[in-house]
Predict the structure.
Amino acid sequence: MTSREDKIAGIVGSSPAMMELFRLTRKVADSSATVLLLGETGTGKELIAKAVHDLSPRATGPFIRVNCGALSESLLESELFGHVKGAFTNAIENRTGRFEAAHGGSIFLDEINSVSTTLQVKLLRVLQEHEFQRVGDTKTIEVDCRIIAATNRDLTEMVEQGTFREDLYYRLNVLPIYVPPLRDRREDIPELVEFFVTRYAQDNQRPIQSVSSETLSFLKSYIWPGNVRELQNYMERATVLCESNELSADLLPSHVRGEAPVRLGRIERTELQSLCAELVSRGLNEIAEDGSSHEAVMGLVERELILQVLRSCQGTQTKTATKLGINRNTLHKKIEDYSLQEESR
């Protein structure tokens, strides 16, 4: 049974996945080693980064946030390392960078996967030597800060593609922490809903006292591609629009209620159409060669289609079924029929 002491203040969740996340966060916080947070967009990686800092011996020091994906290469370099007067146009005075500001504390580098290869070299130096130079300066500045990085991309895949330095990856991946997506901790949804509805009801002076069971049923069955951030957005909207003391299902977006298709995601419809056309052509050739039946051709197309969507969903059957527009039980049977169990793990 979950106890209050097991949780981390400010983070909602009591599921086994979250309790393991809390346990690991507390464990790594005591050290000064670099932490790499892994997880999809909207899962709450910044909250975990702040918890690592707050639970560490550096808690009294600064906690500096940098969104590496929001700035161009030149602006990000100046933001991280600072610059001296005259280093570039509009550099009218010296400026302290984020690393300097984080001295004695922690720096959170969100979307580290978006950093250019040029800046990756400079980040590697900070990690290895704990020193850097301001833009336009030759003076070396030593810094003592803990680095907490986050990525919503697979860095090992980027290393293989040559877009992320392997040596930097190993320097960052000292203490990896996986932040689970909302679909893998659906039992936390009622608690999250209560948290957000209470907050936004107070902010907007709405007399909401409960959430209907139908609403919770829809929320627990939805796939949540945008994770907790998406849930938060829908709860704020529903709370603002609510005119009674109960938050009803009609206040949810139509696709959450199953009345409209969920966005397809990374696999584009044109790609799927092209794939099907290719497979049908291949199957027709097989008919001409060995007399295979029409059912065999359609089976070939169906198996390949399910395989590709399973891979794009990293084996998650609920998400795959939603993208394919079929029942999860139907998908499960087809996975067995086509011997795709390995892909669904």
Observations:
- The longest strand covers residues 146-151.
- Residues 82 and 96 are 5 Å apart (CA to CA).
- Residues 186-251 form a domain with the Helicase, Ruva Protein; domain 3 fold (CATH 1.10.8.60).
- The chain has a mean pLDDT of 85.
